[in-house]
Specification:
single chain, 491 residues, two-stranded antiparallel ribbon, two-stranded antiparallel sheet, 6 strands, globular
């Protein structure tokens, strides 16, 4: 019942931040009449909806977890990188994050002075802005959310935004005075220590992007090391767990499939090849065996019917379908325990030169991911293909296993990590070459889409600005291409 109630009112109250003339209709209360206990779940819901729907879909394609069924056409533009502002790829997340989450969070700050509530607000606000920067690099921040007082906010550089939200987190945490949360908290049931752990995880995620982006490297490296040394992170996973296997209450990714009445998603070649190569027991978690030979097989990125495949093989059973049914009531993961442990392992290995501590955190990350999926065999996997001790390139193993752990968990962050670390690497071979000589391919390497509107060898590095921003904000910068990089991607 609690899940249903949160799902129902959170979905409704994202409307509270829209500028609509509702003339005080009691069925549609104005923002002034909505309490923080209603607005805060609505704000989280807006962030979760962005992470779990549109960002999950195109992040899944960009991270090469998903491809389109050979006979399907719904996601041609994403699969083939035929993307500009006219495609509206980012418009829904842009609206959910600004008009939904961030506006609701701003309203809450005018209705409470409770330090614990305001700290939780700052954490969700930080995650919303992190998502905006990771997609488009520049985004309104210093002049954002002023309504009619400033309908054309400037776009700030992503570095300014990241450093701004880090300061907001620090200031909000410094203001904590032992107070307890008063507003409703569906994530942590008003546990301030869990909110502190969530804030620290977000800090660490952002620090690593700033470090690899060449921003104040010594300072942020010291901060990252200090966070890991303190070890004050959340327990469990941060997940928006409000969905039900009932129409109208579905997980938004499943709802996309339900509304279209079609399963457009099959496994991409890289993820299927790597998990096959490493005999990973998790491969069957969301990937179906193809009926032709009872194996797992992925579609080459950007492959169209009749382009590089024998036409006779273009059937659903030629590739492994993504088991969308298992997402019907699945939570949306905002931050997993697995990701936290992978970040700790990276800091220990890269900055502390502590291989033993890195191994411990790495193994905890893999074990946490197995456990979250209810898949057995983590210990055996860590003694075989996932072995830290046997890896000649331990950091590469860490990044590859992090990529696997993000599959069907957080595709947006997976795409960000690919750009930050250049792992998985981009294969030097084209999709057509791999199709004709698969032995040349290194399992797990990304593959430039075969049909690719941005030219051979390109993969997605960012998304175009929202067309809604272009229509209403004259300060929207000149258009960018998906091959342009975000500020922290300097490799």
């Amino acid at each position: 019942m609690k899940k249903i109630l949160y799902s129902a009112f959170a979905g409704l109250l994202t409307l509270s931040s829209c500028s609509l003339d509702i003339n005080d209709d009691p069925n549609y209360p104005s923002s002034d009449n909505i309490t923080p206990s209603l607005q805060f779940p609505a704000a989280i819901n807006s962030v979760a909806d962005a992470v779990g729907s549109q960002l999950f879909i195109y992040g899944g394609f960009f991270s090469q977890y998903f491809e389109q069924m050979p006979e399907a056409n719904q996601y041609n533009d994403i699969a083939e990188l035929n993307l500009d502002e006219s495609k509206d790829l980012f418009t829904r997340p842009y609206r959910y994050l600004y008009a939904g989450a961030l506006q609701d969070l701003k309203d809450i700050t005018t209705k409470t002075d409770n330090p614990a509530d305001l700290f939780a607000v700052a954490v969700i606000r930080a995650q919303a802005f992190q998502l905006l920067v990771d997609n488009t690099s520049e985004t309104p921040y210093t002049e954002a959310l002023q309504g009619n007082a400033n309908p054309n906010p400037v776009y700030d550089d992503g570095k300014v935004v990241f450093e701004g939200i880090l300061k907001e987190l620090d200031d909000a945490e410094a203001a904590l005075d032992g107070s307890v949360m008063e507003m409703s908290d569906p994530l942590f049931d008003k546990s301030v220590s869990q909110w502190k752990g969530y804030a620290n995880a977000l800090r660490l995620r952002i620090y690593m992007k700033l470090i690899d982006g060449g921003v104040n490297v010594a300072d942020y490296t010291a901060k990252a090391k200090a966070l890991v040394a303190a070890g004050e992170f959340f327990t469990g996973d941060v997940k928006w767990d409000v969905y039900s296997p009932v129409e109208g209450q579905f997980n938004p990714f499943y709802d996309t499939k339900f509304q279209l009445n079609a399963n457009n998603f099959c496994a991409a070649y890289p993820i299927a090849a790597y998990m096959n190569e490493t005999a990973d027991p998790r491969i069957g978690y969301a990937m179906a065996r193809r009926t032709s030979d009872n194996t797992y097989a992925g579609q080459l990125p950007g492959a169209k019917q009749g382009n590089i495949y024998d036409a006779a093989s273009h059937k659903n059973n030629s590739v492994s379908a993504i088991n969308v049914e298992m997402t019907k009531d699945a939570p949306i993961y905002l931050f997993t325990q697995s990701e936290v442990q992978f970040l700790i392992a990276e800091v220990e290995y890269r900055f502390n030169n502590n291989a033993a501590a890195a191994k411990s955190a790495y193994e905890a990350a893999v074990q946490a991911d197995f456990a979250s999926r209810g898949v057995a065999g983590a210990s055996d996997f860590l003694a075989a293909a996932g072995s830290w001790d046997s890896a000649s390139n331990k950091l590469h193993l860490l990044y590859m296993q992090k990529w696997v752990a993000f599959f069907m968990r957080n595709h947006m962050e997976a795409w960000s990590e690919i750009r930050r670390n250049d792992v998985p690497a981009l294969s030097p071979y084209s999709a057509a070459q791999i199709n004709s000589a698969p032995e040349s391919y290194t399992p797990g390497d990304l593959i430039a889409p075969d049909v690719n509107y941005y030219g051979k060898g390109n993969i997605a590095m960012r998304v175009p600005y929202s067309s809604a921003s272009r229509s209403y904000n004259k300060n929207t910068p000149s258009a960018k291409q998906v091959s342009d990089k975000v500020f922290w991607d300097v490799k």
